Amino acid sequence: MATVISVENLSKAYRLGQIGTGTFANDLKVWWAKVRSKPNPLQKIGEQDHGNRDGETVWALKDVSFTVQQGEAVGIIGRNGAGKSTLLKILSQVTAPTAGVVRVKGRIASLLEVGTGFHPELTGRENIYLNGAILGMSRAEVSRKLDEIVDFSGVEKYIDTPVKRYSSGMYVRLAFAVAAHLESDILVVDEVLAVGDAEFQKKCLGKMGDVAQKEGRTILFVSHNMAAVTALCSRACLLNNGNLIAEGEVRPVIERYLSAAKSVDRIPLAERTDRRGDGRVRLTDVRLLNDKGDLVEAVASGQDIRISIGYCSMDGAAPENVKVGIGVYSMNETFLLYCSNELVGTDFKSLPPEGRVECRIPQFPLTRGQYNLNISFLIKGILADWVPAARGLQVVEGDFFGTGKLPPAAHGGFLTLQTWEASSASPLRDGQL
Amino acid sequence: MKSELSSQENWSLVIVPQRGLFDLRLRALWKYRDLVMLFVRRDFVAVYKQTILGPLWYLIQPLLTSVIFTFVFGNIVGLSTDGLPKFLFYMSGTVVWAYFAGCLTKTSETFISNAHLFGKVYFPRLAVPISILISNLITFGIQFAFFLFFMAYFALTGSDIQPNWWILLTPVLVFIMAGLGLGFGIIVSSLTTKYRDLRFLVQFGVQLLMYATPVIYPASFVPQRFQWILQANPMTPIVEAFRYAYLGAGSVDMPKLLYSFGFMLVIVMIGITIFNRVESTFMDTV
User: Could you tell me the residue ranges of all domains in chain A?
Assistant: First the structure.
């Protein structure tokens, strides 16, 4: 099979902080090098430290090389900030790489976000033409496919209504329909499946499967949804901190991703950079304790546990009206549980500038598996700090029911307390009410 | 990394860190001509939706401006209009100036106002400024027709206006103005990705520049010692030539028009070069 995408030593650096080199002389030097198409003389290379930072430069991608064959569906996976979106942005020419070359055979179409360029005042039909043209279709091409697109989107009745009157579901359906019918050789898709209802998502997945298998087009698919990647892709690439760390068959790569996800814990929480919030408070560590207060590495289903969260105020002020949230997610980022002091009516009116908050969960309900905890810290309703996957949570089989028994093949799912009884009340027979 | 490699196989697209200085990708732009036309259409359809007067605004703007100018500069201040009917004199100036100003201000917002779009999909970025030139050209066409209507009215009611063969020069004049607007506009739009202040400078600067152009006064009215300012302004010969061709007062000065033309070429070259530099990485700085 022919190689349709070849990526060689691709790197992308983002400068943090101010733009420009600081002095006019350096700006000139860089500019002169650029004019001669020489590499930037002031850019440090060959340095690698934790988190891929060279002074003020962050490498979103570093020396990534791989090839994609015609008709393949390749999944690109990795944690947030691993460089997936940067890779797609370079492939779809939204931004230029800092070093390296990408060679592509055939027309590339990107679905970085559906509905790009939709104008709210224009009708559905006008937007199909506009969006199609933005994605690189000619007017004639769109006209030829118009019926198919409208049909797929399921918004025939409203096709001559301005899209600002559409529901968000209709909007997304129409947008996906346009992109999916684009006559391209290579389709680049980023998380479109995060939107729309379950039925439409299934339709999209089906359409993309058709595109790859029946039409022989190539797909690059970025997703957090491991189930979708497994279903759709024949190969996967795993990115971590801008490096390509695994490539090949889907299953082994996904397993590698899931086990690599654990290693996130090794970066001290206080030093993580993938956080959000205004920074008034910084989460420092998350500990897992049993009911006696001893540190534990894993918890067992049914165990009484405590999650202890350390924080410190960055401006020395005592945080007031605090809301701490713990989100429990599965490895494929499915949201499972949410705990918060606010839900149970515990007010943290004023906390010490540095300290710990603890959440106690009796009879932990999740079954065996690996999970992640997202932690948020809000002060007076404003996000002060938020860290995704702040800590991994390993759950082992435990005696939830006190019977020594567990549901068959327990991977994933919840356990719940229950009682049973039997009586002689008459059973419902056919036709009786 | 070797560029020889790419020539051995027939890759349809090669993405490299930096493109050559004058690699303008005009062929890609041509491929996207439908997009340019759809942008033009979008601008037209969308702008006056949910307005009561709709497209009438195209006519109200020059009409009101000319009326106000006639009143303020013509009647109150009493500026000379080279013997032309005041209303026609001001209208010819404002309509012509509006085209240049529109091209400049709109193109100068290319990157900022399309950041969400440019951040998601690739298409030749020049498609946006070019669509702006075209939609402004249509606006200009409508407003100019409106001007011709008044011209006919004034001619029939016996005013002394003398349209002449220089009218044939109109497309050239429009072309130079479009080029000037495009050139300045894309230079500013490229620089605004780094320095946002320029946006304010443009809105303000265009207004000021109007006073350095014979829009509300004839060039002949300017004292000798300030003439150089007027003559350095590449818009001066254009406004003057328009007025001479359609109304018979003003001047058509070939060397000065050539100066404007040359100025336009240089500005467009500089603009496209900078624009080209910026478009490949501007998403990282916006």
Answer: 3-43+51-261, 269-400
